[in-house]
Here is the input.
Amino acid sequence: MIILDGKKTSQEIRNEIADEVAALKEKGGKTPHLAVVLVGNNGASVTYVNAKLKDCEEVGFNTTMVKLSETISEKELLEEVHKLNKNKDIDGYIVQLPLPNHIDDQKVIMAIDPEKDVDGFHPQNLGKMALNLPTFLPATPMGIMDLLDRYNIETGGKHCVVVGRSHIVGLPASILMGRNHYPGNATVTLTHSRTTNLKELLKNADIIIAALGKPDFITEDMVKDGVVIIDVGTTRVVDKSKKSGYRLKGDVEFEGVSKKASYITPVPGGVGPMTRVSLLKNTLMAVRAK
Here is the structure.
């Protein structure tokens, strides 16, 4: 069994990005500039945003943090989005999700300039992805593809079962795994809450991408020997032995499933760091496009 080390792999990619940014600056080119919009004080979001800003600093990006009150109106948030769209110095930006309940996530995503949508959530970018055209890919699925690529995991002709159909992870991951490209060329089954024979499908899967947000949902008896496991789940569970009072658990019961897996991502340290580095890659792509 081989651990798919997202922490190590993302660091390698950050080093490559830092070298490209340094070369860009040396030639008098523009310094990449990423902005992050954070609404409210959700603990997980604050931690994640701070990590993103630290990544940017490491590779030589400029950053802007737009911190807004949890009580901000949808109209006011959309005004902030339009300001970022018009700001020529900002190459890309993200609006950190989830947003407060009184704000329509999709309305905000639709308002983002597709050419600055480095999260890859805008329908225009998702449509281009589905057609295999050059575009920003959603950060987490992009990170998964990079991890498979860097570890040279064979995907062609394999049966890939994706658990979860969110537009952020499951749906785009299923499209990317099925495209005529490496990583890809897999036979993909997209499963969800209405799937009736999930255990049977998982038992026959060569590759499992788990993105449903239920800790330890996939257990040893549900997978076959040699399976490749990509665990996207990151649920906080109470753990009084930890200073934070919690620990992160994946969708896959690691202890048991790892005994059968040929490759497996840990939680934390697997897909999470790859998601963050994908934002840097997309931002650099936005600069290249100019």
Notes: The chain has a mean pLDDT of 95. The CA atoms of residues 36 and 94 lie 5 Å apart. The first strand starts at residue 2 and ends at 3.
